[in-house]
Amino acid sequence: MPVQADGQWWQHAVFYQVYVRSFADSDGDGIGDLDGIRSRLGYLELLGVDALWLTPFFTSPMADHGYDVADPRDVDPVFGDLAKFDLLVAEAHERGIRVTIDLVPNHTSDQHPWFVAAVEAGPGSPERDRYWFRPGAYPPNNWTSIFGGPAWSQLPDGDWYLHLFAPEQPDLNWANPEVAADLERTLRFWLDRGVDGFRIDVAHGMAKPESLPDMDPSVREGSGLLHDNAVDPRFDNDGVHEVHRMIRKVLDGYPDTMAVGEIWVKGDDRFARYLRPDELHLGFNFRLVDADFDADAVRLAIESSMHAAADSTPTWTLSNHDVVRHVTRYGDGDLGLRRARAMTLVEFALPGALYIYNGEELGLPTVELPEWALQDPMWKRSGHTKRGRDGSRIPVPWEGTEPPYGFSTTANTWLPMPLEWAPLTVEAQLEDEDSTLSLYRHAIELRKTHPAFAGTEVEWYGAPAGCFAFRRRGGGLICALNTSPAPVPVPPGEVLLASEPLVDGQLPPDAAVWLV
Ligand code: GLC
Asked: Which intervals of the chain form a coiled coil (predicted)?
């Protein structure tokens, strides 16, 4: 059924993150593209997702695989063109799937015309005021880049410029009004083409203190992409909220649209500030990503997320293109997969919005790639001390028994695909009732149609050590998780779905169950 008008759709939506490079390749260059996504919309409809989040497909030299944007209002030829984007949106809407896209307001590419002009115009020029340029014999302060090394690079004319990520990603100066005006143009450009919303990259990043104070060196030590910042002058400055208010104002003029922010901040109260009624609709928090497979840790993550979103809508996610996939985080081989399946039921039982990362519905692990294959700037910039994120970005296996498994027509895919993925393809799992793909399909179907999922509050039951059970107040769904080494009795009720078969009526270790 085509997309229906609904101002609140995002409050309970199942979003599906498409890492565009790795989803489906239509033209045989080994890199995924927009036509590839369009050719797989039938699969996404079958899976039952409500909306897509497409990672950046804009014009880019790809120093950070698209998160370095040279033209935010055009499509990179590697991925297609604007006409192909329009077709994708139209067909997705026809199938009842909304389309949201990435927005990268913290920085541009060093090939963006603004930065090229700034380099050319020289020190003290108005062109340099759109970024953070400073003169001096030394870097202006001790800030480090999230990808490793100093956050400042020097031009031959002596000026330093700020980049919280790679040197090819100069940070914009949001105190310059042209920067906000340009983002507004970008928002309207895509909204007028029919997009349903945006995912805002580094939503805690844009504003910086004019005085550029040093960071606390102890923060420098632990800083990585996933750092839950303590006092860190690089992030979560109050000025950032003005940016979100501007974005919201624009979105409010387009019915049924939304924005979700990537927000890494310290503490629930700081987080909640991004979700005030005139700011973002949703915020990714990474508490479930950070939690071990342990009932107490998971419960704490859930309670804290719900507390942070008490006046808004919680948003759940277990994996994305920046982190180790949850199958791999939870343990080796079958153990990791069992636990991942259990956590899927926990996540899908919760009220709010949730995000699936492409391939997690197939139980894909993070792969340890050979060093020659690695491309992530994080790997390069860290002096090869961190493995980077490529292992979680391997192309999706669709069908067949060997690479590229229907992803492309060339086996020379941008990241190599493992030889042992034949049992993980969509084709291999689609008709298998016990597959992870079938578990996702059933879970999404129930979540969308079963009355037990009504209501926005949960209440917790007493449970044996290493276990928890909560109930959706309202609909009455019960979800129980067992992270202990022994089977446990389940709460009374009829089984709706289980991540593993119950044994003599008991919930086995590393499993979860839904009851009504
Ligand atoms: C976000 C993206 C990540 C990117 C970074 C810089 O954290 O998720 O992939 O490298 O921003 O844009």
From this structure: none
